[in-house]
Amino acid sequence: SFFAQLKTTTVRKLLPESWGFLCPVHTPDGSPCGLLNHLAHKCKIMTKAVDVSAVPRLAAELGVVETSSAATDESVVVMLDGKVLGWCSPKEAKRLADTIRYWKVQGKNNVPVELEIGYVPQSNSGSYPGVYMSSTPSRMVRPVKYLPTDQDDFVGPHEQVYMSIAVTEPEIISGKTTHVELHPTNMLSILANMTPFSDFNQSPRNMYQCQMGKQTMGTPGTAIRYRTDNKTYRIQTGQTPVVRAPLHNAYGFDNFPNGANAVVAVISYTGYDMDD
């Protein structure tokens, strides 16, 4: 409620690190807009820590040493879960991140696939340069395709800001792009994915549909006949949609119908149209 009363809109903005983790469409309009968010449908939350006991040894083999120079153009920090493993040169840091990522995707040298490898390159502003690896629970990860091996890789919010991830195959820049999205709709939540042809709609309409789609009189539960509610509503003659999104079948929405197909006819007889 504190953020809802702020006059600034900064807290409501969708940041680059949220892409693929928070849905840009599925948020209410009005005061909670941008504050009440929903997870994208491929986003996964880590519930247990992964075994990273092999990572310090691998980092040492790749040139990480325990002594550092005071100048950041000579040495940058390498950390694992907030603990300093050592320092290396900026060029070695890039090689370290790329090599550990390759092993991670290949499943080699006991590097877990859910390890987050946040390589922050040198710049004149922004985050401090270095390699920041995370393996703790309650992190968000999401799958993308790793181009060098054509296998699935899991990326986290911290690392993806500094990576080149193409949305579609034609966007791939040779020599620069390392990953590509498995599907462009992975950025949307389950509910936002249920809107067919959403790319033809005005964007606020997709937001309104996310609110209305979950307010339908559908099937509120599977054990209605055994429940003791005083009053409950359910749809008796549910229909399957004539036009459906690809994920409609994947999530089994037809098992519990959500509404009926409405037929709307608009005829402009006297020069007025549907907007009048």
Description:
The chain has 276 residues and is of the alpha+beta class. It has a domain at 55-181: Alpha-Beta Complex (Hypothetical Protein Ta0175, Chain: A, domain 2). The chain is built from five helices and nine strands; from the N terminus they run E-H-E-E-H-E-E-E-E-H-E-E-H-H. The chain has helices at residues 55-61, 90-106, 157-160, 203-213, 247-250; strands at 44-45, 76-80, 83-88, 116-120, 130-134, 140-146, 151-155, 165-166, 179-180. Strands 1, 6, 7, 8 and 9 form a five-stranded mixed sheet that branches. The longest helix has 17 residues, at 90-106. It is elongated, with a radius of gyration of 24 Å. The model has no long low-confidence stretch (mean pLDDT 87).
Taken in chain order, the helices and strands follow as EHEEHEEEEHEEHH
Major sheet attributes: 5 strands, mixed
CATH fold title of the domain at 55-181 = Hypothetical Protein Ta0175, Chain: A, domain 2
The chain-level mean pLDDT equals 87
Q: What is the CATH level 1 assignment of the domain at 55-181?
A: Alpha Beta
Measured by DSSP, the beta-strand proportion falls in 5-15%
- Large-scale geometry: elongated
Organism: Sporothrix globosa
GO molecular function: DNA binding; DNA-directed RNA polymerase activity; ribonucleoside binding
Domain DNA-directed RNA polymerase I subunit RPA2: 85-142
Protein name: DNA-directed RNA polymerase
Topology at a glance:
Elements: E1 44-45, H1 55-61, E2 76-80, E3 83-88, H2 90-106, E4 116-120, E5 130-134, E6 140-146, E7 151-155, H3 157-160, E8 165-166, E9 179-180, H4 203-213, H5 247-250
Parallel strand pairs: 2-5, 8-9
Antiparallel strand pairs: 1-6, 2-3, 4-5, 6-7, 6-9
